[in-house]
Structures are given as structure tokens and as C-alpha cells.
Amino acid sequence: MGITTHRKVMSNLKYRVIFARMDEIFGKAGAVLDEIKAATAGNADEAEQFRIRYLGSKGVIKELFGFMGQLPNEKKRAYGQLMNTIKAAAEQKLEEFRQAFAQKSRGEGRPSDLTAPAYLYPMGTRHPLSIIRNKVIEIFSRVGFQVAEGPEIEDDWHNFTALNMPEDHPARDMQDTFFLTTDKKWLLRTHTSSVQIRVMEQRQPPMKFIFPGRVYRNETITARAHCTFHQVEGLYIDKDVSFADLKQTMLYFAQEMFGRYVEVRFRPSFFPFTEPSAEVDISCFVCGGSGCAVCKQSGWVEIGGCGMVDPAVLENCRIDYEKYTGYAFGMGIERIAMLKYQINDLRLFFQNDVRFLRQFRGAL
Ligand code: DAH
């Protein structure tokens, strides 16, 4: 083999190597372009990964540019154009991703069309007992009553003894008590009257309070009775408080709660902690007194008990009964709600069936 032949062979070989490498480089670049065109991103993170992979300082496109030097001069121009195409494709793709995710996060935060109707969220409703309790508080606070609360776990003193119901007093049997200890010292309060004692022990008159809260009685659950229910208690102690004040306050409450044409009636009754005591009826606001199912044809419905605070109770709380007098009253919140909304089964308040509760949307 002469020297010329050898050179020719060598140079052919060199070209063949170069051509093989050239095909490889162009092939690789073509594959990257296909990859970029097909790329997808599911979120902003994936878009960023795309940017790093293709457009980053150590990315695929940078690497492809690096092959330029390995190409024969006449191919450099074509390769340069291909590289520009690839880079432009990657940049365009990235821009698409950015717009998609920017739009999405904007859409999540606030509506892009501010004139579009608002999203409708399902609104909750207040429980009828909360509505009534709030209304009671509002009515009494307008005439100077403050709100206080006491514990549901009570001792014998506050629930019974201090309320003029010493041990073995028959009135204790009227309220079937859940006792918490065998010595019967601790119990679940049977009425909110216990809060009267707690407040009177801590303060001196004048005092004008209502005490809303839950009470417990060991009763069989029926449409008319439950082992737990709610009461609101009232207490006003000052100089010269009279039964006339009590009557006027009850009338005011009844008219605010049930309507301005409602009348009140006081029936003599007995409670150990008040003397005199009365039960309060209101004229039936459904039939106006002529007789209907709500008032059981009597024209009157009972709403609670009341009376002048017994001096013995004032004395138990170290309040000077020579100087001060006061009245107290107690009403069932369920009872008021049942009358006002004409609900005939007490159990509905505790079942929390949304079909029942939803009916009180916007109720007052
Ligand atoms: N505590 C009584 C009950 O639960 C209701 C009551 C009656 C409360 C007369 C009073 C009152 O404050 O004066 O049945």
C-alpha cells in the first residue's frame, strides 16, 4: 500500500467516523426536540423540573450546543439552526406551563371574572334552641338583665338546700335527680335555680340577672319529656322590688317573644324558694284565646314558674332580707321553642336531623 493510498484510506476512515458521529449528534438533537414537543407538566414543580432539565445551565440544550465543535464546518450552520429551534421550542413550552399554572392558582384564589355569580356554599343554620336562647337574652338585656352561667355538675347545697329544700323535703322528689355520688352530695343540676344561689353568694344587691343553661332530670324520654333540657332563670334583687314588677316583666317578655297582643295570667302555685309563687300562662298566640290544639282548647299556655324570692333563701346567701326583696322566674327554653314554632315532639331538638334543623334558617 503506497503512502497516498494509505492517506486516502485514513482520511476516508476519518470521514466515516465523523459522519457516524454527526448522525449521532443530529439524531440526538432531533430526539430532544421530539421530547420537548411532547413534554407535559402537571403542576408548577414539574414545570420547573422541565426548565432545569432542558434550559438549565447544566441542561440538555447546553450539552447539545457543546457538540458543535465535533461537527464539520459545513454542518455547523444547520446544527446551529436546529439548536435554535430546540431552544425556542423549550422556551415556548415553559411559557405554556407557566401560564397554565399561574391561571390555575389565580383561579383558586379568587374568580378571574369578578362579575360572575359567587360560589354558593351550603350555609349552616342555628339550632332552634340557640335562636330562642339568644332571643331571650336579647329581650331581657334590653331591660337591664345581665347574663351569668353556673356549673352543670352541682352540689346539694346550691341545687336544693340553699333553695329552701332541706333534706327530706318533699319538693326534692318532684325532680328526679341524677346523683353522681352515693352520698348524694354531687349531682347534675335539676334546674338553673342553683345559679341564683351562686350569684347571690358572691354579690350584694342590686342584681338583675338571667341564667340560661342545660339541666338534667332522670325522666323517661317521650315527646313531652327528656332527661336533658334547657331553662332560663331570672333573678332581680333590690330595694322595693315587688310582685307588680315581676308581673310587668313577664308581660313585657311574653309580648316581645310571642307578639304584642299576648296577655299573661298568674296562677297561684308553690315553689320552696319563692313566696308567694305563681305559674305564668300566656294567652294562646295561635288562636288568640278562642281555643286550638296548641292550647288544648283552653285559650292559655303555660310558660314557666315565678315568685318573690323567699327570705330564707336570701338569708342562706347572707343577703339582708329586711332591706332587700326580689323576684325570680324560671322557664323552659324547649317549651318556648315548641310553642313559638309549634313543634309537637321534644325529641326533635336532640336528634339533630338536618331536615328539621334547616327549617329554622332565618327564623327569629
Ligand atoms: N326551678 C323551677 C323548676 O325547675 C322553675 C322555677 C319556678 C324557677 C319558680 C324560679 C321560680 O326561679 O321562681 O321547675
Remind me, CATH topology of the largest domain?
Answer: BirA Bifunctional Protein, domain 2
Distance between the termini: 113 Å
CATH class of the largest domain: Alpha Beta
Average of the residue pLDDT scores: 90
Explain this structure.
- The protein is of the alpha+beta class.
- It folds into two domains: 3-107; 128-360, BirA Bifunctional Protein, domain 2 (2-Layer Sandwich), CATH 3.30.930.
- It is 44% helix and 18% strand.
- It has helices at residues 3-38, 44-55, 60-66, 73-109, 128-141, 156-159, 193-202, 243-258, 311-316, 333-341, 348-351, 354-357; strands at 146-147, 153-155, 186-188, 207-216, 228-238, 264-271, 274-283, 300-309, 325-332.
- A seven-stranded mixed β-sheet has the order 1-4-5-9-8-7-6, with helices on both faces.
- Strand 6 and strand 7 (274-283) form a beta hairpin.
- Helix 1 (3-38) runs parallel beside helix 4 and helix 2 runs antiparallel to helix 4.
- It binds 3,4-dihydroxyphenylalanine.
- 3,4-dihydroxyphenylalanine binds next to strand 8 and strand 9.
Describe the structure concisely:
This protein has 364 residues and is α+β, with helices and mostly antiparallel strands. It contains 12 helices and 9 strands. Residues 191, 193, 233, 271, 274, 305-307, 328-330 line the site of 3,4-dihydroxyphenylalanine (DAH).
Features:
364 residues, alpha+beta, BirA Bifunctional Protein, domain 2, two-stranded antiparallel sheet, 18% strand, binds 3,4-dihydroxyphenylalanine
